[in-house]
Amino acid sequence: MFKKLVFLFVLALFSVPTFVSIAQEPQGLPVDVPREEMFVIDQIFRYGVAGNYNIWQTAGTTPHRHAMMDETLWYIDQETGERVYGAAISDPMYNDDFTQMTVELRQGLEWSDGVPFTAADVVYTVETLKATPELGQSGWHAQFNQFVDTVEATDDYTVVFNLLESNPRFHNLFETRWNGVYIMPKHIVENVEGDLGTWTNPEPVVLGNYIPTQFDPNGFWELYERRENWETSVAGTVIGNPGPQYVLTIFYGDSSRKAIAMSRGELDVYFDADIEAFETTLDTTPTARSWYADFPWAYPNEVSTRQLAFDFETQPLFQDVKVRWALALSLNIVELQTEYIGGVAKVTPLPVPATPSLTAIYLDPMQEWFENLEIDLGDGTMYKPYDSTVPDQIAAWAEAQGYTVPGEPADVFGPGWWKFDLEAAETLLTNAGFSRDGGGNWLTPDGEPFTIDLQSPPDENDAFRMANAAADMWSDFGIDVNLQGLERAVWDQNYFVGQVEVYTPWMNFALASGDAWPEVRGDHPRYYVPNGEDVRPAGGNAFFQGQRLQDPQIGEYIDAMAAITPSDPANVETATEFFKYWTENLYAITVISFKKFVTWDERYWTGFPTAENPDRMPLYWFQAGKFTIQALAPIN
Amino acid sequence: MLTTLRDLLRFSPSFRLGSIILLLAAILVILSFFSPYEPDDRRAVERNVAPSIEYWFGTTSQGQDVFWMLTFAVRNTLIVAGIAVSIGRGIGVILGMISGYLGGVVDRILSSIVDSIIVIPRLPLLILIATIMRGQMTIVALGLLIGILDWAYPSKRYRSQVLSLRERSFTHTAVFSGMNAWKIVIQEHLPFIIPFLLADVVSGFLFAIGIEVTLSILGLSDLDTQTIGSMIYWGNYYQSLLTNRVWVLLAPIGASIVVVVGFYLVSIGLSEYLDPRKRLARLRVKE
Amino acid sequence: MTLLRQYILPRIVQWFVVIFVGISITFLIPRLSPVNPVDNALGRLTSFQTMDPEASQQMRATLLDLYGLDGSIVDQYLNFWGRLIKGDLGPSFQSFPTPVMQIIGAGIGWTIGLLGTSILISWTLGLILGSLAGYFSNTWWAKLLERVVITIYPVPYYILAFILLMLFTYYWPLFPLVGGSRGEPAFTWEFISSVLYFGFLPALSLVIGGTAFRFIMAKALASTEMTSDYVQYADLAAVPKRKILFFYVIRNTMLPQVTDLALSLGALFEGALITEVVFGYPGVGYTLYNAINSGDYNIIMGITLLSIVGIATASLLVDLIYPFLDPRVRLR
Q1: What does the pLDDT look like over A73-94, one tens digit per residue?
Q2: Is C264 within the bounds of a domain?
Q3: What is the phi/psi pair of residue B65, to 5°?
Q4: How many Å apart are CA B41 and CA C82, to the nearest integer?
Q5: At what angle do helices C189-226 and C250-266 cross, to 10 degrees?
Q6: Fewer Cβ close by (within 10 Å): the C or N end of chain C?
Q7: What does the pLDDT look like over B151-204, one tens digit per residue?
Q8: pLDDT tens, position by position, A21-51
Q9: How many domains does chain C have?
């Protein structure tokens, strides 16, 4: 009797999974759509507002919807730095004093229900957003009230914005890096009964090419279907290719789960993974690849950079520029970029990433200045810290590993970085009043052991590994470094209120177009907040203001840039001057550009941009990612 | 005392095995004081080496020797669990027994307090507190925290255990024959409570280790102190399963199993020894 | 009548007190956390692109107003009870303006289904197997079972779940990685079987962990009970072993077991946080975890409220049915 019971139990334990999985033919996708008609993309977050398509609300996280459903006037492609016309067909045209902006709209566009798109839609969007505080998406409501006096359609395809004050960058609101003002279907929204703040747009009519048809109430996934009149959508017109019939965005979770999903053929592209998971993908999924077909694989041109940033108030010793330079010169960038990062990201001495467009605008023209830059070691000795052979050294490492470097080392690994020169670092620290104790460890001018509390969130892979490298190298140099890996929410809080000495933020000083002011305006010292208080309520850039840096000179550069139009050559010149000032002071140690293991599987779809075929950015999660998806073709 | 130990080792196979296992754990703990590396050393040895004669349990992706890491991890995890269990079970046993024996108003008040604490979900509360503490979470703090949050359930269990004992016929017999209340508790009831307590202590250890691992996985404990949880966290972080470097995870998992199994076996042996009737039954078998 | 006045009524008053205290504590604690929902929402908006700092300050004010967080903590507390009495838990901040009720509604069914089923299965299995093993402690299968169980039991739950996930989604890709079902909910075989299919692995992990725990408790209780005089008498009286076990031993060890079952059923409203995170299973545990990370007080409150009421009620019910389960428990 009991033996039978146990036997039955064991039997059930094995038969039930077998039975269930046979009945289901192992297939883990949550929708019933033919696999070869569906492109499955890695959803970067869970949707916060599942089933609510009123994307103009002060909404929670809505990844990918902006690329799938929504249109704005212009897109900046981060790979090429070029402006792509979206719903507009002209550049923004300003009057002489930048108080009026005129835009010509693309003709022949239709909404997904066949109604033509006209200037009335744009005017209605601006007026509605301006009038409705509940529609707080991306702060457009606040910014329209700040800048826009009136907006009018002078004909069906021309819109004129009359501004309250001179603003040469008003068009930035309609031009993407991440997103731009989503244009509303006037014929739908004006007929909404009740409060727009709570309307959920249950049956979205879209200007983008995809209509959401199914969703997970818990926000794990959303299924989109291509609209029938795709030829009259923006991406359809620009690319001229229908794109996949269905697109599924799905949230798998961490790197390992994405790698597993791809090996199972249940994910066509993931936006990033750590290098271990990426290497697993290469092993398990022969049809998968990233930007480069081979080493260094990853997409290196997302527009941002990573820093080791100082909090100048927790540790006032950082206020001495000699200490900052000593810390930079005691980092071995070649070892950091290879042993810790895997050789797959570009190095950069500036908070400007070494993308092709920004290299051409800033890094290349500044190369000579970098090479001639001299710093004072503190005793009057002038020293040249820059090393332009860094990319060659990395290339030599790569070749020693048996890799082929796909191009000029400087194009693949960045322009150059600071020398690894412990002697110079030693001189700098000594001249800053530091000394070594008997064990070779550094003592501060007060005779206390020199310790650095370095904090970094492990889930930000490159930042954390960069922090590991810094901790190891500074320790070798004789500094007592305490590296803390902190959960992200915790880490965020610590630099918000200044409970950190060195942290690993990302900073970016220029848009892909080369315009610097929109990226640095939040770095103005007027948004300075002292240590102990949260930096965010002041409104500045939290990553930057976490440094508690008070240098009025920075404010003067930023004010000067604000007054120049982005197209004026003086704009780049002023920005360059600012970058030189920043570099001489080395207020934060910029280490590497962003890289992403944007990896796709060519099992079902082809046509994703690659290094051999760099027509556009592969960053499908930005609003301009719509073009990337639109260009896909089935593999057979 | 020594005789008891000798008897236990001689007659209880589970106690014997359990003691050997715990002895192993103790040796690991002692070894941690003789480690050739500092606990937070990275790049101390070659990275990603599989277990070998030189590195018994292999090395990690950060260049640490897994064996020596494990000695620190077992020590620290035992500290966390030990603190948590002594606090949690201490409070739990006392409150549970007071409430069960005294009954009436005292029971009602204590039960209300216990119930108010019980209803608050523990793991979310721990996560919240860990977030509030923002990286100031040392292992001692963690142990205290787990202990403070883990006494309500045990106390409720002890109370119901006591309630059930109180209604047993032998209690009534003892009461009618004029036995002193303390005597009843100590002579008649404790032999029943202690096996329960021992099983409960083991599950308390397990709970504490589990919570320690869980908070580490969520990145909320002190990730830079070697514990079983933080070893698992870093093993996962460097994808040791995907990349087939399983030894990094096997060591902490194995250690957590070994330690708890050791405690479990010892607790079985002890409770059999303490239960007078069971001991008789066993002796009869031996004869 | 005395029963009602002396036992039941105070117990019900206690129920109210417990819930009130529990809710007040959970109202307060998240507000001590430095993670606050307004700055969190702003951070989300500005993490990919910079926003005009003046505009972001204006937005801050608007959000404080919309979220109902601009008053003092006392005002917020009073408001909270005012709304709660009307059955309104307010909007989620993270998913503004979605009502908390709707968000919990989306997850609670999954959680109850998954946890309820696996708790019941593991409770029954553990109780029966544990009592069997305790009763027949000298047979080979009881020893084997015990050895297996005590090896599985100490494995931290996360590890167990993670190993199952890797085994059955990667090395042997039989089960799905994420989600609760396929397609739109409908009363069809396709949908129902997909719920079973998607829920299998998470349920298995919970059942294994839960059974091991219950097994050990049941075995400990049964082997204590085994030595009771009545069992010996029954044995001498040649009562069939099966009958002794099921009618006397198990029944007598039920009291603490039922308490535990009721409490764990009551606790299921807080969800299986780790299970849901590991298996990407939609449920309130995962939602709660996200809410804690983003300072979404209203969601934290909503879910803990359910959990508090759930456990308090379960424990009330247990106390009320105690006398029926074990007639030896007399009122004092």
Answers
A1: 999 998 888 899 999 999 999 9
A2: yes
A3: -85, 115
A4: 55
A5: 140
A6: N
A7: 888 888 788 788 878 777 777 787 777 777 777 777 777 777 777 787 788 878
A8: 555 555 788 888 999 999 999 998 888 888 8
A9: 1
Give the model's confidence band at A397: pLDDT under 50 very low, under 70 low, under 90 confident, else very high: very high
C-alpha Rg value of chain A to the nearest Å: 27
For the question of whether the overall pTM of this predicted structure is more than 0.95, the answer is no
Residues of B in contact with A486 (CB under 8 A): 134-135, 219, 223
Q: In this structure, are strands A502-503 and A451-456 parallel, antiparallel, or unpaired?
A: parallel
Q: Chain A contacts of B237, Cβ < 8 Å? A: 458
Residue with tokens 């109180």, as numbered in its chain: B166
Mean pLDDT for chain C? 82
Closest alpha carbon within chain B to A494: B134
Range of the domain at C116: 100-294
Question: Whole-angstrom Cα distance, residue B280 to residue B273?
Answer: 9
User: C140: how many CB neighbours lie within 10 A of its CB?
Assistant: 8
Residues in C touching B195 (Cβ below 8 Å): 220, 224
Distance of alpha carbon A160 from alpha carbon A564, whole angstroms: 22
How far apart are the C-alpha atoms of A541 and C56, rounded to whole Å? 10
Is A315 in contact with A501 (CB distance < 8 Å)?
Answer: yes
Whole-angstrom CA distances from A525 to A89, A516, A580 are 38, 16, 18
| A442, pLDDT greater than 80 | yes
Coil, helix or strand at residue A364: helix
Contacts of C12 (CB under 8 A, 6+ apart): C316
| Element (DSSP H or E) covering residue B252 | helix B247-274
C-alpha C87 chain-centroid distance: 22
Strand partners, A307: A590
Query: Using CA atoms, how far apart are residues C18 and C11, in angstroms rounded to an integer?
Result: 10
B239/A482 touch (CB, cutoff 8 Å), yes or no:
no
The beta-carbon neighbor of A276 closest among B42, B218, B242 is B242
Question: A117-121, A623-627, C70-74, C299-303: lowest mean pLDDT where?
Answer: C70-74
Q: Mean pLDDT across the stretch B239-255?
A: 88
- ipTM (interface predicted TM): 0.86
pLDDT digits (tens, 9 = 90+) for A400-440: 999 999 999 999 999 999 999 999 999 999 999 999 998 88
Query: Tokens representing C318?
Result: 């247990």
**Inside any domain, residue C192:** yes
Secondary element (H or E) of residue B86: helix B66-102
Contact between residue A353 and residue A303 where contact means Cβ atoms under 8 Å apart: yes
Direct distance between the N- and C-terminal alpha carbons of chain A, in angstroms, rounded to an integer: 59
Residue C332: inside a domain, yes or no? no
* Cβ separation A220–C45 shorter than 8 A: no
Residue A260 to residue C170, Cβ atoms within 8 A: yes
**Residues C153, B156: C-beta atoms closer than 8 Å:** no
At residue B275 the predicted structure's pLDDT band, cuts being 50, 70 and 90, is low
Q: Are B246 and C192 in contact (CB under 8 A)?
A: no
Q: Which residue of B has its CA nearest to A255?
A: B239
**Rounded Cα–Cα distance for residues B203 and B263 (Å):** 10
Whose CA is closest to A189, among A131, A241, A233, A269? A131
CATH number at residue C185: 1.10.3720.10
* Helix, strand or coil, per DSSP, at residue A379: coil
The span from the CA of A263 to the CA of A265, in Å, is: 5
Q: Which residue in C has a C-alpha nearest to residue B198's C-alpha? A: C220
Residue A358, Cα to own-chain centre: how many angstroms?
15
